[in-house]
Structure formats: structure tokens, C-alpha cells
Amino acid sequence: HFFFTAMLFTYGRFLSRELVNTVSSDHLLYKLVSGLIKYQMFICYFLYISGFVWFILTLKKKTYKYQFKQYAWTHMILLTVFAQSSFTVANIFEGMFWFLLPASLIVINDIAAYLFGFFLGRTPLIKLSPKKTWEGFIGASVTTIISAFLLANVMGRFQWFTCPRKDLSTGWLQCDPGPMFKPEHYYLGDWVPHWFPWKDVFLMPVQWHALALGLFASIIAPFGGFFASGFKRAFKIKDFGDSIPGHGGITDRMDCQMVMAVFAYIYHQSFISPHNFSVDAILDQILRNLTYEEQRNLYEQLGEMLGNLCKADKLAACL
């Protein structure tokens, strides 16, 4: 019950625009979905309170401690696993670039830390993980940051990676990539030796942002793994599972991904996503807050205003 409530609340907020765009062609379904989205917070709160009351009514003597432990575990799991993983879905709808690049950087950092630690590791890094070394940590950090800069250039060339998904369809994506993914010219004449062959380079602005993702994946994200290591030691287990020989289970591979997904989403919303009004943002508000009749009235008024503007100014765009 609590999982369903959390899913309805989280994905309802993240994917409301995409869901409305998907059903906009069906008038009845559109009105139903718009109503659900409009009252989504109230519906989710009512569902949560009903679960809370349900839990209280099912309390039994001699099992109070066990039941409250289960209640606490349920909320803890939803907070640390479900809430964080939902940011991964949000990143995918902002563009596959914002999902694949951060996820790839975690994998690169993990592999590089193992290789540098195996061949050069001498100094222990943290007591929770005796096999982790400073040499592996530093080597992996440098490798990850360089990889982030280069991978961003490669991924940024493909619209299927950079275009946001504006509905729930599965069709091929085409869009204007925007200024973040358009190469800019940089002249390196005074910054490099005279024998250096590449004095003119073309870099995408998103590559500079990728450095921030690489830095986070190198320094902060590994602490998600340290947290998981401490958690496993507290319960005296080696791995969360055994589905991957030599690496534990799926959860053992995803500990850092959770932290990285949240950072990628927050970073995108803070520094990448435009904060000014856009056509998409205005349309989203119209679709969510106006009834079908109000939208039709707005459409007619805009048509009249544009028609009058064309008659007054004789704009070439109206011809």
C-alpha cells in the first residue's frame, strides 16, 4: 500500500506533463487524467493517512515492537531506495544523456579504482573497506573526470541521447539540441606550445558541466558504496546477493548509482534546465490547469490577437 502511494506521488509529479501529452488526443481520457493530476497531492495524502490508520488498527499485543519495526523499515526503504531511484526515471525523460552519462561515470570510476588499487594500491583509504586505497581513489578520480569530458562530447552528438521525452510514447526522438549541445570554437594559440597540432578545438558547453558530474562521481558517489559496506558489516553479511559472481548482487552494483542519479537530476534542474518561461512550460500549465472549454477559448482569443497584429503590422510571418 505504501509502495503504491509513494509511486503515485513521485511519478505523478515527475511525469505529469508527459502523461497529459500522451492522452491529449482523447477528450474523455484527457479530462480524467487532468483531474487526477490536479488533485494528485490530496489523493496521495488520503492514501497515506488511510495506510497509517490501517496500520494502527492492525496492531496486536506482543507484536507491537515487530510491527513498528516493519513500519519503520517500510518507510526507510521507500526513502533510500524508491525515492532515489525515481530520480533515475526523471533523468531519462530529461534526455537519455542525463541518465547514461552519470551511470557510465560510476561504472568507469568503479573499474578504474579497482585497477589502480590492484596495481598501485599501498595506502588504505577507509576502515570500512580495507581493500580501498588512496592510490585507487585518486587514479579513479582523474580517469573519471577525463572520461566525463570526452564522453559528453560523444553522447552529445546524437539526438536520441539529448532530446527530452515529452510523452510516454516509444517513437524516435528529433529536436533542436539547444545551445548546450552545439559545439563552440576555442582558440588555444597562446595556451599550448607552438608544436601542438590542435590550436583550434570545438567543444560543447555541456562538456564543462560534465566535469562537475565527473567530480561528484569521483569524490562523493563512492561514499554511497562506503555506506553500503558499513550497512553490510553491521548485519555481518558480505554481499546483498550473489547473482553476479565475484561482485555480489544487483544491489551491490547500484549503491553509488542512487546517489549519482539524485545529484544529476538536481544539477540539471539547477544549472541546465531553463528557468525562464518557455513554450513547453506555458503549454504544460495550460494543459494542467485549464478545462477543455477554457483551452478552446484561449485558442480562439490568441487567433484573434494574432490576426489583428498581422493586419496592423503586415508581418511577413503571417503571409
UniProtKB/TrEMBL annotation:
Q: Which GO terms describe its cellular component?
A: endoplasmic reticulum membrane
Q: What is this protein called?
A: Phosphatidate cytidylyltransferase
TM region(s), chain numbering: 39-59, 71-93, 99-121, 133-152, 206-228
Family that this chain belongs to: Belongs to the CDS family.
GO BP annotations, alphabetical order: CDP-diacylglycerol biosynthetic process
Q: Which of the seven top EC classes does this enzyme belong to? A: transferase
Topology in membrane? Multi-pass membrane protein
What organism does the record attribute this protein to? Aegilops tauschii subsp. strangulata (Goatgrass)
Subcellular localization: Membrane
Q: In which pathway does it act?
A: Lipid metabolism; Phospholipid metabolism; CDP-diacylglycerol biosynthesis; CDP-diacylglycerol from sn-glycerol 3-phosphate: step 3/3
Q: Which InterPro entries does its entry note?
A: PC_trans, PC_Trfase_euk
Taxonomically, the superkingdom here is: Eukaryota
Q: Which reaction does it catalyse?
A: a 1,2-diacyl-sn-glycero-3-phosphate + CTP + H(+) = a CDP-1,2-diacyl-sn-glycerol + diphosphate
